[in-house]
Write a structure and sequence with these properties.
Blueprint lengths: L16 E7 L6 H13 L5 E8 L5 H7 L5 E6 L5 H11 L4 E5 L9 H12 L3 E5 L6 E3 L2 H17 L11 E5 H7 L10 H11 L5 E5 L1 E3 L8 H31 L10
Helix pairs in contact: 5-8, 7-8
Length: 267
């Protein structure tokens, strides 16, 4: 750890930081992204591990990670594609850290945010720190129809679930280990609703200190789909997310109706 790092980072000097990176067919960018990730972490946190969870990749992603010889990096290769939620869950099972991140493998979100999230967790004693497109300090550039659908989805979330955040879906989140230990046995959703499931179950188990953090996101840097193709893609995701959300709502209602909850509060 650098001698000039902020004081609130020093509590992490003996802590192991786990960073889970779910990827699918990222062979073209995976090595550059790994190098960037390592540079952003090692300068501030001496003990860390990076778990690349390859979600059934069919290109050379696994081979390139396997050939990237760094003691901090581990490859977790899934036999078939089952969704980001499934991949992150596999990473949670493998992670050994005291603090556990996941960050989208495409690095649309810059990994420099990792040290900011840890600093915020230390300052505010949060259970969870999540990236939010709606934080007043966020710098976000993405299509208007994604903004509209995201806004509508968050209104639904506020109506159906007791999760007091403005954005559940950003692919950068930080958890204390005890949060993951508590929720992991109850996680079920494999695809787009897994972020909401994570936060909802954490709240049910008593981990209510959720802090939203600003992000920088330029969706157009990595996504080159033509307008109609992008719209169709977002529409398919929206339908799948709606189905996941409905299933989760029914499950949470059933849990709350039980006299002795199946999801026992952790504290």
């Amino acid at each position: 750890m650098r001698s000039d790092v902020p004081q609130h980072f020093r509590q992490f000097s003996n802590s192991l930081i786990s960073v889970i990176v779910p990827v699918f067919n990222e062979a073209q960018n995976i090595i550059d992204n790994l190098r960037l990730l390592i540079v952003e972490i090692e300068e501030y946190f001496p003990r860390f591990e990076i778990l690349i969870v390859s979600d059934g990749s069919t290109d050379d992603t696994n081979l390139r990670v396997a050939r990237f010889h760094d003691p901090h990096v581990r490859l977790v290769a899934m036999e078939r594609n089952q969704g980001k939620g499934h991949a992150v869950r596999a990473g949670f099972r493998e992670a050994q850290g005291d603090y556990i991140f996941f960050i989208d493998g495409g690095m649309e979100l810059h990994p420099s945010e990792i040290r900011i999230f840890l600093g915020l967790m230390a300052l505010y004693e949060a259970d969870i720190v999540i990236g939010s497109k709606r934080h007043p300090q966020s710098q976000v550039y993405y299509p208007w129809f994604r903004k509209m659908l995201s806004w509508l989805f968050q209104r639904v979330v506020h109506f159906l679930f007791d999760v007091d955040v403005t954005d559940t879906q950003v692919g950068l989140k930080l958890f204390r280990r005890d949060v993951i230990t508590a929720v992991l046995p109850d996680l079920r959703i494999d695809r787009y609703g897994f972020d909401l499931e994570l936060l909802t179950l954490a709240k049910l188990k008593g981990f209510g200190r959720m802090l939203e953090a600003p992000i920088r996101l330029d969706y157009f840097l990595r996504n080159r789909r033509a307008g109609p193709v992008e719209f169709a893609h977002v529409f398919r995701i929206g339908l799948a997310l709606a189905a996941d959300t409905l299933k989760l709502y029914r499950r949470v209602r059933a849990i709350k109706r039980m006299p002795s909850s199946a999801v026992t509060p952790a504290r």
